[in-house]
Every structure is written in structure tokens, then in C-alpha cells.
Amino acid sequence: MSLQATQVADRFGSHELDFKSSTRTAVVIFIGYLIGADSAFFIGTLSDKIFAPLWPPNIVLMAALLLVPRDRAWLCIAASFPAHVLVEAGIGMPALPLLVAFGTNVAMAISSAEAIRLLLGAPPRLHTVRHIAIYIVSVGLVCPAVIAFGGASVRILAGGPIEQYFVFWFQWFAANALGSLTLGPIALIFIERGAGAFWPGGHARQMEAAALFSLLLLLALVVLEVSGSSLAEPFIPALIYAPFLVAICCAIRFGVMGGCAAALIVTVILIWSALHSSSSFPGGDIENNVLALQAFLILTTIPTLLLGALADQNREVEDRLDKAEDRVSLAAATANAGFWQKTAGSQHLGVNHHGRFLLGLTTTGDLTRESILAIVHSEDTRAAANALADPEITTHHPEEFRVVLPDGRQRWILSRSQTKSSQDGDQLDTSGIFVDITARKVAEAEADRQHRELAHLMRVSQAGELSNSLAHELTQPLTSILANAQAARLIVESKPSDISEVVEILDEIIHEDQRAGEVIRRLRTLIKKGDIRSELVDVNNLCEASLTLLHTESITRDIQLKLIPAAELPKIVADPVQVQQVLINLVMNAMEAVQAAQSTTRAVVIRTTNLGKDGIEIQVDDHGPGISATNKTHLFEPFFTTKERGLGLGLPICSAIAKRHGGTLKLENNAVGGATACVHLPLRPPGDPCHDELGLFNFPRR
Amino acid sequence: MTSWDFSIFLVDDDSAVLRAWKRFLEIKGYRVHAFTSPAEFLNMNDPSVAGCAVIDLAMPGLDGLSLQKALAVRNDVRPIIFVSGRANLASGIEAMRAGAVDFLEKPVDADELLAAIERAESLDKANRQVTSERDAIRARLDRLTGREREVLNYVIAGRLNKQIAYALGIVEKTVKVHRGRMMAKMGVHTVADLVRLTERLNLQPDR
User: Fold this and answer.
1) Which residue would you say has higher pLDDT here, A191 or A619?
2) Which residues of A touch B106 (CB under 8 A)?
3) B111 and B152 co-located in one domain
4) What's the distance, CA A128 to chain centroid?
5) CATH assignment of the domain containing A606
6) How many domains does chain A have?
7) Closest Cα to residue A79, out of A107, A98, A60?
8) In angstroms, what separates the C-alpha of A490 from chain B's closest C-alpha?
């Protein structure tokens, strides 16, 4: 819109430039005034040969005044004066009425121009019904009515009877009002949009315009022809209305411009015929006929103009709506989104073309909530049902679900909606969109897979680091088993009767074998590759198990591992393998820190804390050298390591695991000079399907 | 071969291993004392009891090597057999250098363990024999008077009676009397025997 306004202003400015050449301006105005007056006289004058029922020169002068800056108004007036003199003297008007007539003409033009500048802005705009209504009232009615008091006196001065003053007044008023109503808007539109506004765009529209105006001309001429016959006399009112039918059509189809042009044509033809062929309007004298005709024309032109403005306004709104719709469709297509709509209580669901495409629906028939739920992946039925539920039942969170396409592929759909009560206030209408988020979901799954692989790799690397001590863990039961077995053989060889001791030995062998099995099982969990599991985890138990894994390692490093478990710790939903991985990583780091510091307190303390509804916390304290300020900023950057053989992936992965559980991992220096690693884990990860508002999460998911 | 007088001191933090070894070695005829921590063993250890120690290298608190050092500080020469769950060559070498009898890797083969224990037993026996001989010599030495001790020093330094008399400022005859008593108390007849005895005690002659 603003672009168009700028162009208009430019064009307006360029007109101003054209008019800067004073001579040219003057000549143009002179000629314009002359043509206007000549055409008025051509259409016809009343019996006094002075008064023309349609007076265009005032409109020419008004347009000129609007086009030049205010300080050059004198030029327009000065240029039109000789034209006025030329024309009026040509018809033999005496000097005084001539001057007074010019004065009233100038007053009419100036008051119209000023009213337009004041009420419609510069450049004047006639786009809306409001604008055109203002124009009709001010320029079309009030200005001519006021100035007509002066105009009427011209006739008196020219010798007209004083009793006829108000007849003259009305004639003068009607002549100028007709000019302002039919020619005025055309001039203003020309000022605003240039000559291009006269020609409708597109072949079809031009053809239509040509057809309509031909019809108008034809009809007007037929009316003229027919109205001459005495048979037609009773039909005259209907006959002179007939062209206006077409004028209204012109206004509807081509707006103010079309309406004005049609009204102008009708006006010219009817006035010309009223003045020239007395047969057209039989009965009464010509003066009265013209007066009646003027009144009729004014009254019919006003609704035509309003209708035209309405059509213009409508067209603009439609245009804007079209553009908005285009933009929305473009945005939707770019985002791969489809629209849907539903009224509460109704099963019917409206889905647009792209929406159907997204759902993989080829039918064009009516859709219901059920028919969409039928193609949703069975695991996601709940989410889809929520997404499409009536607003009374659910708050409208965005929901994600899969639909199964006809070829068996799955597509992830995000549905987002908003509910408003309809205009009568009774119904709740929900509008929503479907967005194809398959690509995002695939990327998420891929990121998930990579995270799992990396976490697994790090566990394998942990297992590698621990392999030495784990081997030792295995040799203990094996040593015991071997010694026991050899003892048993000795017993059987030397005193076979002593079976009770052999049984005792066998029991011990079994027990030790189980112990070895346990070590292997723990190692296997550590390096096992599998999906992320979600189960109820007792973190105290998990800590204990992890410390068992690290038992020999801690002995070798001569570091005491101490677990201070919280007295009451709620179970959390987590992947035990990953949580253990984090714990082992942190304890190993702590042990390395203690070794590096040659600390006298060779201990690492693991503490669990119950945070109530916020979940739990695991703290790993060491008496190492602590974290330096420079290192602290890089702690969680991948491949940052202070160790000689470290990969620098331990902490980033631990942090990622904590985040995936909806928790955090923090590292800070503690009061004893060492570092404290703090893992916070919520009771359950966000987005866990078991998540319920009541906080009753004591049921395992699987 | 086996002897009830020979004790084995087992030190391992793993009670299952301790139990199994104790059982096996007892069947083999040894007297076995089991300790789950080095500190406990240090408290209970009586150096006079014949026996050897079987110690795990990696234990919480005091580890095997520290225990070996602690025993050395107490002049306890009890033979030590080290065992370990891991082939840690460095600590193995250190242990052997500090006088360990053997360094065995877990799980330990019974024959290997028994062989090591036998070696330790004979080493312990030899140690104890040397110690008892020394004690006997030192007892004889302690019976000498001051003058006799002085004469002994000169004799093992190879001095003649005349030289000794001059050095001590007494007559040669008196020296002969002291020398005779001294040789009798030490239970030797020749100077060569006397020198051998005193060398066992690492006595250095005054020169």
C-alpha cells in the first residue's frame, strides 16, 4: 500500500514539476477552461443563451488549483480569466455579469479545491465509501449550494427577473453540483493515479467496459428516439431510468471511475436532448424540464458514486485478502503445513488440500475425527486424539503423532491449534495446522543414535581403563575356587569318608563361581550396546554397584571410596546404564585428581541427596587440586582434556546424559580445595509419557 | 617334609581366598594363621615362631610392599611370598629385590605355592640356624673379661704376644695367661678357628 502511495506522491510531484513552467501551465489552463466552457455551450444553454445546465470549466480550474502549489493559485486564475472573457463575451455577456460570473466560478473552484485538500488530503483519495461520501457532501453539495447565491445574481445582472432568483440559484447549484459529481471524481482520480486509471487492466475487463459503455450509449439513444413518440409518454420516467441501470452496472464493475463516466455520459446525452430536441420531453417548457432533469441526475448520480466506491472498496479488500491468502499459503507451503478446522461438538473436520496431502489422504470427501485417527500410528492414537479433541476436553498443547501413509511409510505430523468462540458466541471453533516434522524427527533420532553410540564407546573405553582391576576382581574368586578344589581333591584322596567338609568346600566353590559371574555380568552391562532404557532406578543401589566395580581400582590407587547414601531416596525414572556411566566417570576423574594432587587425604566421597519433588542429587567430592579458572570455562567442551591420555569426551558425554534425563551436571571447587561434581536428576525425564500432573510416578513404564 | 612347627601367615583382604588357602594348607599339614589386613598381621606377628608369610600385594590401607618394609625395620627376617591378582612387574621386581622368596600370580597353582612355601621353609630354617649359632658365639664372647676381650682383638688382628704385651703395657707372661683363658672360654684351639667365629659376628679387629 505504502509503495503505491509513494508512486502516487511521485506522480503528483511530477505534475507539479510540469506546472513549474508558468507559461505552459497558463496555456494548459487557458485551453482547458476554453474547452470546458465550449463543451458546456455545445451541450446547450437555456433560453437566455447564457446559462449552461452542465458547467465543466470550474472543475478544470479546481483540478489546476489542486495540481499547483497554493502560492501559484493566482497563475491559474489569471490564465483562466482570458478564456472566460473570450467565451462569455463570445455569447454577448455584458461586462458586469461577466466579472461576477468569473468571480463565482473562481470561488467555486477555490472552495472545492480547499475542501478537497482539507478533507481528502493531498493527493486526494477516493478509495472508500467514506471518502466519496465526504466528497459528495462537501464538493458536490455544500460548495455549489453556497456559491450558487452569487451565481444566481449573474442572471439577475444579465437581466433576469428578480422573482426568479431561487430558480436561478437552483439552476446554478445544479449545474455545478452535476459537474462536481460527474466530472470531479474523474479529475481527482486522474490527479491521483494518472491517465492509466481510465483504462481497465486486462483484455477481458477492457472488453467488458467497451460492452457496457456501448450498451449505455445504445440505451440512451434508444431512449431519446422512443421518448419522442406520444405513445411512450407514460413510460418516460421508466425510460430515463433505464440508462442508469447500466450506469449502476458500470459502477459495480468499474468502481467510482466507471460510475462517474457512465453518469457523465447519461448526463450529457439527457441534457443535450432536453435542450435540443423538444420532442424528447413533451409537455411543459424546456426550462422546467431541464430543472427536473438536473434534480433527477443529481439524485441518481449520488447513489451511483456511492455504489462505485463500495465496489472499489470491496475490490481492494478482496485484493488484500487474496494477497494475504497468497502469503499464508506460501508460508504454509514453505513450512510444509496444512490447515484444518473444526467446530466443537461436530465430528466433521475440514482439512485443506495440502493438509490432506500431508495425511496421505487422496479422497476429497468429508473427513471426520475418526477417519483421521484411523490412519494414525497405533502408538500415537492418544496424542492425535488430544490434538483433535474438542476444546472443552483438552488444553491445546502442540501434539506430535505419526500417520501411516498408503504406501506404508510413516510421516510425523505436528498439530497445533487455537480455539475461538464463533461470532454468535455459542460455538467454539478450532483452527489448527498440520506440519510435517518428519525431517526433524529423523534428525532427532539420528542425534539420539549418535549419542547412544558415543556413550557406548565411552563405556567401552571406561571398561578398558577398568579392565586391569576387573581382571583382579575375577582372579579372587578363581583363586579361591582353585584352592578349594585342590583341597577337596586332597580330602577325597586321603580321607574319603569326610564327606561333610567336601560339601562345605563345594558350597564355597559355587558361591565363588557366582561371584565371578557377577563381575562378568557387571562388566557386560558396562559395555553392552542397547537402546536407552527407562526404568525405575534406586540410585543408592546403583552407587553401591558402581563402587563395587571400582573397588580394586581404588585399592590400586590407594584411595578410599566412601558412599554416604541419603536415608530415603525416591526411585527415579532413568537409564541405569547411563547413570552408572556418569557416576563411574566422575569417580574415576576424582581418583585421578586425588592422585595428581599427592593429597594426604586419599579419599573420594560419594553422597546422594533427596531433593523431594525436584528429584535427587549425586555429589562426588575429591581432595584433588580443584579446577583452575582457565580450565573451568572449557570443562564441557569436547576434546578438552587435562589428562595425558584423556580423550576429552568424558565430561561432555556425562553432561549430555544428564541433560537427556532432564538434569544437569555441575563442577565446582569445594571447601577442602578439591572439586565437587554434582549431578542433578529429576524424578523423571521431561517428555516421559508417564509424566502426569498428579506426580504419581511410582509405576515403571515397561 | 611337612612340619607342624612351621606356620604360614596368610594376609589377603579377600576372606574367601583366605578360607580356601587356609583349608588347603592345613590339609597339607601346615599351621595356618589368616589375616584380612596387614595391620592385624603386624600386631599378631611373633618373630620367634618359625614360618613364612603369604601376602597379597594389593590391599586397602597398608599394601604388601609397605608391609615388607615394616617387617624389615623390625629386623624380622620372616620369608615372604607375594601373590597378586595382576601381573604388576614393577612391584614384583621391587618385592624380589627387597628379599621376597617368590612372586606368584593369582590364581595360584597349588604346586607352585607349595614349592614356594618349601623354599621359604628351608630359608627360614637356615635363617634361624644362623641366628642360633651367632647367639651361641655372642654368649661365649659375653663371658670374656675386659682384658680378655682386648687380647682377643689383638689376636684376631694377627699380633704376637710380645706386641700385645707392649701395647697393653703388661708383661708377656700375663698376656699368655689371658690368651689361654680367652681361647678356652671361646671354645677354640687355634687362632684360625677363633677368626672364623668372630667373622660370623662381623667383629672387626682393631688395627
Assistant:
1) A619
2) 472, 475-476, 478-479
3) no
4) 26
5) 3.30.565.10
6) 5
7) A60
8) 7
Whether the predicted pLDDT of A373 surpasses 90 = no
Q: In terms of DSSP H, where are the helices of A335-405?
A: 353-359, 369-373, 381-387
Q: Say if strands B80-84 and B51-56 run parallel, antiparallel, or are unpaired.
A: parallel
**Residue A420, amino acid:** K
Q: The complex's ipTM?
A: 0.74
pLDDT digits (tens, 9 = 90+) for A29-46: 899 998 988 888 888 877
Do A106 and A44 share a domain, yes or no?
yes
Domain around A427: 335-436
For chains A and B, count residue pairs whose Cβ atoms are closer than 8 Å.
Answer: 82
pTM above 0.80, yes or no: no
Out of B24, B27, B85, the one facing A475 most closely (by C-beta) is B85
Among B101, B133, B165, the domain boundary falls at B133
Residue B83 has pLDDT above 60, yes or no: yes
Looking at beta carbons, which residues of chain B come within 8 Å of A506?
none
Residue B63: which region, alpha, beta or left (left: phi > 0; alpha: psi -120 to 50)? beta
Do residues A523 and A663 share a domain? Answer: no
Which of B141, B2, B35 is CA-nearest to residue A490?
Answer: B2
Of B82, B103, B133, the residue that ends a domain is: B133
How many structural domains compose chain B?
2
Q: Nearest C-alpha of chain B: how many angstroms from A606?
A: 18
- Domain with B167 in it: 143-200
The verdict on residue B138 lying in a domain is no
pLDDT grade for A192, boundaries at 50, 70 and 90: confident
Our CA-based measurement puts residue B200 at a distance from the nearest CA of chain A, in whole angstroms, of 42
Does residue B105 sit in the same domain as residue B70? yes
Query: pLDDT value at position A151?
Result: 84
Residue A494 pLDDT exceeds 90: no
Chain B hits for A494, CB-CB cut-off 8 Å, are 27
For B58, which of A486, A494, A556 is closest by C-beta distance?
Answer: A556
Q: Which three cell numbers stand for residue A559?
A: 584411595
Q: Which of A378, A403, A436 is the last residue of a domain?
A: A436
Asked if A483 lies within 8 A of B86 by C-beta distance, the reply is no
B141 in helix, strand or coil? helix
